[in-house]
Sequence to fold (334 residues):
Amino acid sequence: MSQPPQPSHSLDPVQLGAYFALIEVAGLLRHAVEQQLREAGDLSYVQFQLLARLGHSQTGSHRMTDLADDVVYSRSGLTYQAGLLERRGLIARTTSPDDERGVTATITDAGRELLGRVMPGHAELIDELLFQQLPREDAQALADLLAPARDHMRSTPPRSAARRRRR
Amino acid sequence: MSQPPQPSHSLDPVQLGAYFALIEVAGLLRHAVEQQLREAGDLSYVQFQLLARLGHSQTGSHRMTDLADDVVYSRSGLTYQAGLLERRGLIARTTSPDDERGVTATITDAGRELLGRVMPGHAELIDELLFQQLPREDAQALADLLAPARDHMRSTPPRSAARRRRR
DNA sequence: TATTGTTATACTCTATAACTATA
DNA sequence: TATAGTTATAGAGTATAACAATA
Fold:
């Protein structure tokens, strides 16, 4: 084996610090937000994400597989969460018109209503915890810094690898 | 009630995008890292964090309460995780010398050894997923953007509030 | 034969409350 | 009386594998 030991793979202190800060900020933020969502609408964060995706889409609908890829990491996990949402009448599931195997989830009026009821407090909390500390132009900078990493992680390596392994 | 509606609390699209990107990047990153840690050392992320805190400290020790505040969100959660680590001989718990109520956790040689064994693959993964997409100076910028938010969330609002509520 | 989604199941993690011991 | 830590317990969430139905 003639590869160099692993000189490029070690993280320098700056990178390590950025990584830990990222994990910690997101963890604290998510923890706080989960409490708010639970209190305001009895929603877990995943359930909120599902409602938000559906609510923001043009049709209010998505296929289960797409939701699983976007929001959750396993299909059975999505089935579980979607079941909870459906039981509460916040989404509806119907077989997809174009593919009889597929299931299309659609947000209901009640779902939109709940989303609208939860969102203001949600935004307020995010604003308070994150953006009060961050000048507006820094929010843009943060988004720009994270976008390429997100795109890379969404597309390429570990998720598809895990998916392949699973079959 | 004469407060203004909530004009300053709504997030603009840039902020909303930054927030979602942050949550998503951290979530994907953490998910990938959790698999690596599980495979490389049969560690959960929290367990890794505990070992890392202890390993990076000068003495190799910390009080349980400090660890709970840093890494985990409830004391019983820490007791559980510390119990798992102790059972595997990766940490040791002793009553604190200065305060007989306290418990001091210390990383063992086996714990250091495992940390050392897990760390290269960990760094490699972070590098691949995050920093290959991020020029070095951007890593610094990211750390600088996140630091004030981290400090703010660590200190003030929801954790201490929750802690007070708990009593 | 491959893919979609669900189900059954087992497991990990987390939090609440009650409890013990020390300050 | 307050604090540190543990224990018991219960609940939520996740993943794996087996399965049914459609492509």
User: Anything to note?
Assistant: The mean pLDDT of chain A is 89. DSSP finds seven helices and three strands in chain A. Chain A has one domain: 22-156. Residues 63-65, 68, 75-76, 78-80, 83, 96, 99-103, 167 of chain A lie near DNA strand C (CB under 10 Å from a C1').
